[in-house]
Amino acid sequence: MSLAYIGLGSNLSDPQAQISSALDKLTQLDNCVVKKVSSLYFSRPMGPQDQPDYMNAVVAIETSLNAIELLEELQSIENNAGRVRKDNRWGARALDLDILLFDLQVINTVRLTIPHYGLKLREFVLLPLAEIAAKLVLPDGDSIQELANQIDKNGLKIHSKLR
Question: Domain range spanning residue 90?
């Protein structure tokens, strides 16, 4: 079994319900077991500011899927939630599920980059990840807790517990 960390985000169509539903779908996957779930956080949008704030969380799962198979499952959950892929990378979305880490693998393909390319730069990823995996060390040796302690919080607020 591999340990993967998944980032969940939404700012459309009742974001809290979208994230809760995505978490339910993750628990229903045959080859995955949800191990830990962060709190739900409010964050400002990364891109254009003329969109609603986001809700974000991070979950840890154990899976027998490989990284590409997991990506396909996550994209299916996104699509079923009404995700529309656009050229605007940082636009509003009903649901965004990102593989942040997959064991300590480093993957760089056209389809998938792990660790997630923005992991170290995003407070809405680092803080929930540090909440559930404070002792985690990235493949390059960086400590998640140290990165979380150093990043600008940018108005990030805990909203509630998901589970």
Answer: 2-161
